[in-house]
Structure formats: C-alpha cells, structure tokens
Amino acid sequence: MPGPPPGPGVAPPFAAPPTEGRRARLWLALGVGALAVVLCCGGGGAAVVGLAVSGVQAVREQGRTVSNEYYQALVDRDFGEAYDQLCDDARRRESRAEFERRAAAEPQVTAFRVGEVDTTNLTVPVDVTLEGGQQERQQVALAQDQQTGGLEVCGVS
User: Fold this and answer.
1) Contact, 155 vs 82, CB < 8 A?
2) Cβ-count burial of 114 within 10 angstroms (0-12 exposed, 13-18 middle, 19+ buried)?
C-alpha cells in the first residue's frame, strides 16, 4: 500500500509546464502553418495560371507566325511554300498542283498585315492588298497539326 502523499516543501517529480507566452506561441504556430498553406496552394495556383497564360501566348504567337509565313509565301509567289503551311484537311481537299494553279490565277497579294489571333475560334484577321491596290480583310482559319501540335492554315475566307 502506498504511503501518504508528501507534505509541504517536497519537490514535484517533474517541472511545471510554462504558462508565460503560451498564447503568443500558439498564434505564431498558427500563422506559420497558414503561411505554409498559402505558399503551397497559392504557389500551385499561380503556376497553373502562369501555364495557362503562357499557353495562350504561345497559341497567339504561333498563329501569327504561320499566317505571316503563308502570306509572305503568297507575296513571294512561292505557292509551294504557301501550300506547305496548310493543314492536312486542306491538303486533302486540294492537291499541291491544284493549289498552285488556283493561287497563280487569283489576284496576287502584294502586301498584308496579320491581326491578333482569336484563341477561342482559332482565327486570324489579315488585311491584304492585292495587285491593282484593292484591299480586303481575309479571315484565316487555323488548326492544330495532330503530329507536331503546331498550328497550320486550314482555310481562308
């Protein structure tokens, strides 16, 4: 049977837990935890937003580039090079020889200005100057190549 409890003046078997600064440490710990959550989740969210923005910019740049190359080939009367910018569907509709004959027979493009890519519809407006000074706005339809992932001209209206 255990003896009676120790009386006054006896040292306890362990130190008493500190009570000073307990609240400050709790708030500091909660603040550090919240900061870690914000950095992890916020950083991931920022990365997703950054990827989406850079993807849209890449589509815009690639759409302008392929449209520019297509029209520059028409200005240079290099119809084979213009044909190479076409998507597979456009090539199935018209052979290289047919395209070259048609492009040579149409009024020749002498100058052009490529507008901003509509990333929703994958279209690009192009202001074109034809032989004789006639000007018109053409709409280039773009499509993504299944093999390379790059954009190609898939029609002009």
Assistant:
1) no
2) buried
Q: Where are the alpha helices (DSSP H) in the chain?
A: 22-75, 79-84, 88-93, 96-105
> Model confidence over 85-115: pLDDT tens digits?
999 999 999 999 999 999 999 999 999 999 9
50 phi/psi in degrees, rounded to 5? -60, -40
On whether the CB atoms of residues 36 and 109 are closer than 8 A, the answer is no
- Three-class SS of residue 135? strand
Q: Which two tokens stand for residue 27?
A: 């708030």
Residue-range domains of the chain with CATH:
28-156 (3.10.450)
Q: Which helix (H) or strand (E) holds 125?
A: strand 123-130
**pTM for the predicted model, two decimal places:** 0.68
